[in-house]
Amino acid sequence: MTDGKPARDILNLVQPHLLEMPGYEPVEPVDVMARRLGLPEDQILKLDGNENPFGPSPRVLEALARFRYYHIYPDPAQRRVRQAVGQYVGVDPEQIMLGSGSDELLGLAAQLFLSPGDAVVNVPPTFGMYDFIGRVHGARLVEVPRREDFEIDMIALESALARGAKLLYLASPNNPTGNALSADDLDRLLAYDVAVVVDEAYAEFAGHSFVNLIDQHDNLIVVRTFSKWAGLAGLRAGYAVLPKPLVPTIWSIKVPYNVSVASEEAVLASLEDAAALRKNVALIVEERARMTEALNALGWMRPYPSRANFILCEVKRMPARQVRDELRTRGILVRYFDSAGLHNCIRISVGKPQDTDRVIEALAAIGEGVRA
Ligand SMILES: Cc1ncc(COP(=O)(O)O)c(C=O)c1O
Predict the structure, then answer these.
(1) Does residue 283 register a pLDDT over 70?
(2) CA 118 to chain centre
(3) Distance between Cα 355 and ligand 1 center (Å)
(4) What pLDDT score does 2 carry?
(5) What does the pLDDT look like over 56-73, one tens digit per residue?
(6) C-alpha 340 to ligand 1 mean position (Å)
(7) Which of 26, 34, 75, 125 is the most exposed place for a label (fewest CB within 10 A)?
(8) Closest ligand 1 atom, residue 102 Cα
(9) Which atom of ligand 1 sits closest to the CA of residue 238?
(10) pLDDT at 372 over 60
(11) How far does residue 200's CA lie from ligand 1's centre (Å)?
(12) pTM for this model (two decimals)
């Protein structure tokens, strides 16, 4: 007791597993990085977040300027956007739910399936959010590392699922490795008594999706986003394609106004202009091939084949962290990895042709410096 009040430590009331959370390591925005590097913002080339440098459709900007109901809550049932997204992916709009980015829907899947102590299976190296979400929910993380070529180790994964797990996250194409999941592997995994979330954040760059399997498997959820192909990362708009039996329960746990009216307007305008946005995707895919070739030509970078809008490279003969840092001093931001299964790597987002030219030129200079 102090001053008649009981001594209390508020942290004793926090869920103990959360006190140990390492936290998610996000990429920083341009203004923060510009200040940190002492460079003007317009000299920053941001290739660390797999964002789309073409930005949103001009129709998004017009729609947002025209919209008159920012003071009114969004439709909690998301009727107009579900209709439009359902049409885009070719499924019944009843099976669509929008979220504040696909991140929210990845988290909602965990809320649906995971009680503390339940097993969630993760296949690293992969998107860091799956591990993060599992930890937040106090789940038991079961890690089944990918093989050296980043393909899934099916024998190990099937034996993990056979031991019992509630939830499995699989990104296709996978971030940061860039490779896609095979239809045969997914088919085998869906036979287990586990909810499988296939994260298709980069599907438009791969030209492939598993959405068409939704009605054949009540344990498959596909999560997609407008952040990458449609250039809406800042507005936060993703969606889940759900098997019919899960629809009532997931709606009953969603917060009512999770998607802003601005995001809704942006999604509708993007889908009206999908043909133009697909042209930007095609340009990025073209640039991905050119950047892969240019990285190979450097002789000390080993780019892995990618189906997404980024390229993972193993750095030879030099610490990858040094390459990341030297690119930074030139205003070029890339992501650096050095973890189990991902040694001495950087990941470069693919942008416009002039972005490729600038990053390759910088890398050539860095390579020269080391040789000199
Ligand atoms: C595999 C994967 N899934 C999901 C996301 C998050 O997307 P969103 O912006 O829709 O939350 C990302 C973002 O980088 C990602 O790489």
Answers:
(1) yes
(2) 24
(3) 22
(4) 56
(5) 999 999 999 999 999 999
(6) 21
(7) 26
(8) 10
(9) 10
(10) no
(11) 9
(12) 0.96
**Beta-strand pair 301-303/238-241:** unpaired
CB of 83 closer than 8 Å to CB of 136: no
Q: Which atom of ligand 1 approaches the CA of 106 most closely?
A: 4
Residue with CA at minimum distance from ligand 1 atom 3: 201
**How many Å lie between the centroid of ligand 1 and the Cα of residue 103?**
6
- Rounded Cα–Cα distance for residues 360 and 366 (Å): 10
Contacts (Cβ under 8 Å, ≥6 apart) of 49: 27, 233, 349
Q: How far apart are CA 295 and CA 348, in angstroms?
A: 11
Query: What is each CA distance from 36 to 27, 328, 355, 358, in whole angstroms?
Result: 13, 10, 21, 21
Structure tokens at 54: 């073409």
Euclidean distance between CA atoms 326 and 222, whole angstroms:
38
Q: Which residues pair with 169 in a beta bridge?
A: 197
Query: What number is the average pLDDT over the span 210-222?
Result: 97
Atom of ligand 1 nearest to the CA of 104: 11
User: Which residue has its alpha carbon closest to ligand 1 atom 15?
Assistant: 201
Please name each of the domains of the chain with its CATH number. Answer: 10-53+275-371 (3.90.1150.10), 59-273 (3.40.640.10)
Assign 3-state DSSP to the chain and report helix, strand, coil percentages, each to 5: 45, 15, 40
Name residues contacting ligand 1 (CB within 6 A): 50, 101-103, 127, 171, 175, 199, 201, 225, 227, 233, 238
DSSP 235-289: T--EEEE--GGGHHHHHHHS-TT-S-HHHHHHHHHHHHTHHHHHHHHHHHHHHHH
26 CA to centre of ligand 1 in angstroms:
11
Q: What is the pLDDT of residues 150-200, one digit of tens each?
A: 999 999 999 999 999 999 999 999 999 999 999 999 999 999 999 999 999
Confidence category of residue 340, pLDDT binned at 50, 70, 90: confident
Confidence of residue 307 (pLDDT cuts 50, 70, 90): very high
* Cβ–Cβ under 8 Å, residues 367 and 298: yes
Give the distance (Å) from ligand 1 centre to CA of residue 171: 9
pLDDT attached to residue 8: 85
Give residue 224 CA to ligand 1 midpoint distance, Å. 8
pLDDT at 27: 85
